[in-house]
Amino acid sequence: MKKFINAVDNVLAESLDGFAAAHADLVALGAERKFVRRREPNRNTVALVSGGGSGHEPLHAGFVGHGMLDAACPGRVFTSPTPDQIVEAAQAVAGDAGVLFIVKNDSVDRMNVEMAAEIADGKTATIVTDDDVAVEKSTYSIGRRGVAGTLIVEKIVGAAAEKGADLATCVALGERVNARTRSMGVALTSCTVPAAGTPTFALGEDEMEMGVGIHGEPGRRRVKLAAADAIASEMTTAIAEDLAAPAGSEALLLVNGFGGTPTIELYLMYNAARRMLEQRGLRIVRSLVGSYVTSLDMAGCSLTVSLLDAETTALWDAPVRTAALKW
Amino acid sequence: MKKFINAVDNVLAESLDGFAAAHADLVALGAERKFVRRREPNRNTVALVSGGGSGHEPLHAGFVGHGMLDAACPGRVFTSPTPDQIVEAAQAVAGDAGVLFIVKNDSVDRMNVEMAAEIADGKTATIVTDDDVAVEKSTYSIGRRGVAGTLIVEKIVGAAAEKGADLATCVALGERVNARTRSMGVALTSCTVPAAGTPTFALGEDEMEMGVGIHGEPGRRRVKLAAADAIASEMTTAIAEDLAAPAGSEALLLVNGFGGTPTIELYLMYNAARRMLEQRGLRIVRSLVGSYVTSLDMAGCSLTVSLLDAETTALWDAPVRTAALKW
């Protein structure tokens, strides 16, 4: 295992301390590192709280700040945050407008958020993201997995909350964005969880995992390594057929690296995916390319397409000031 | 070789096309993809032109835009851009205030910029960055290599040019920033150049290359893999001893990933490096953590420390709108 670490048990704590120190202008770390919150919470707006296992950085802590999340709860690597983490995060940022939890569709994540919502016993609601078209049921989820599309839900709902939208409006908006968002991933290599010390799954030198999950969960099939165009074609086909959007629909295309894939390759995949989606009649009007929802050091990427309308385009464009997204 | 590519000869062209399409609001691609320029060049200010071999993305094209570079010339992977690329880029963005070339200290990069400056035969000047303390002389350079510190020179001088500083002022500022900037890198794995198809150098499963260059050039020594703190200690010691800054000096700390290292590890290294630099009396007042000056898919990172004063801090903080840096 070749990683920059000191001790396996301290990876998350030391990384969070670094994150909080590097971005002290934007965020603060909760007691015992249970959550990352906006440095100056806005008590008059709906508070957005997300979280999940660590190892997907910058998701979610990197999206805490003006115009996006109010708090994020980092679980241990690939492990759900505990209900008490989520309760404390909600209490730290909640005002009278209520708390909206945004959670990826993962059985334990969802259960812990439900428990937290009961304990918090206030004005709360939950959005569950499930954008991954690769498989209908996975290792940790009943129904589709929530993956990189979560970023888009967090950005658009965060912008609405920042403008003063109430809880019901934020929920409806988040569900609308999630329903119009589809993703699919592919792994060229496995990731290695520090506590395990060895790769999560074995891939031959000439193999890739098509439809992989962001924890290395199995995808649709193990196949021979293929050219970028062939990979992009399979992924865009799966996404577009599932979206079934009318010709001329406007969309955001997110090409997301899994942690071990360099930028030069992500833009090459963007080029292929954009061309293919436009051939299918979609109009790519917004783009994001980078490693935003990662799987530790996995080489691979995901494509996400999210249909936009005038309202969601304006909310996507609205100012955001977080560690990982700024405009 | 596990990469998202179609054909080895098309990697750069397809990646550049994707980059230009994804960021069409900020940049435009020159004829035959010879350069990337600001979508709307400002003809009244000094034009900053940089470039170098590709494979270091987002450097340099990712830094083209308001408040940073006016144009960047991408050579083939790890290969200098040609003089005619540099001349055409300069002609595309030059106004009456002149052109400032910013070039990493690499023998061929420098020669080609000198030839371009002669051909352009106008009001031009050149800043050469040489921030790498690892070795005094390397495979491709006489004198120290220019590495991630180049980003800091480009950001600070870009802000000054945007505010209307003249050519002589920009040159003096860039030389001052470069003289106060030091970097050092470490590789946990080699990179793989697409055209070669195999790793540039061989590293054992328990080895790392301390002081590596961004093309995989040899560093100070091949050593056994060590804990993050031990790695950070060797790098911060080399940097701080060379900088020899008075106690209390204010500095920017850049922790830069080489392409295959995930964000969670970069923040862990930031945490270690920051603590060590502060123990040496430096005050870390600005931070940047991410993969900005990469070496294809190499796992590894570099640390850069740049001493700041009131003027350079304000220029670092000035608004920037590029693909890779925005605030």
What does this molecule look like?
The structure is a homodimer of 327-residue chains. Chain A is an alpha/beta fold and 327 residues long. Chain A has two domains: 10-180 and 318-322, Rossmann fold (3-Layer(aba) Sandwich), CATH 3.40.50.10440; 181-309, Hypothetical Protein Tm841, Chain: A,domain 3 (2-Layer Sandwich). Chain A is built from eight helices and 14 strands. In chain A, helix 7 links the parallel strand 11 and strand 12 (283-290). The radius of gyration of chain A is 19 Å and the shape is globular. The model of chain A has no long low-confidence stretch (mean pLDDT 96). Chains A and B meet through helix 1, helix 6, helix 7 and strand 12 of A and helix 1, helix 6, helix 7 and strand 14 of B.
Q: Which value, in Å, is the CA radius of gyration of chain A? A: 19 Å
The helix/strand order of chain A is HEEEEEHEHEHHEEEHEHEEHE
Please, what is the oligomeric state?
A: homodimer
User: How many helices of chain A does DSSP assign?
Assistant: 8
Counted beta strands of chain A? 14
CATH class of the largest domain in chain A: Alpha Beta
- CATH homologous superfamily of the largest domain in chain A - what is it? Dihydroxyacetone kinase, domain 1
From the helix content, strand content and strand pairing of chain A, which structural class follows? alpha/beta
Mean of the pLDDT scores of chain A? 96
Major sheet characteristics of chain A: 6 strands, mixed
Termini of chain A, distance in Å? 36 Å
Q: Strand sequence of the main sheet of chain A, in spatial order?
A: 1-2-5-3-6-7
Helix content of chain A: 25-40%
Strand content of chain A: 15-25%
The appropriate CATH architecture of the largest domain in chain A is 3-Layer(aba) Sandwich
CATH topology of the largest domain in chain A: Rossmann fold
Shape of chain A: globular
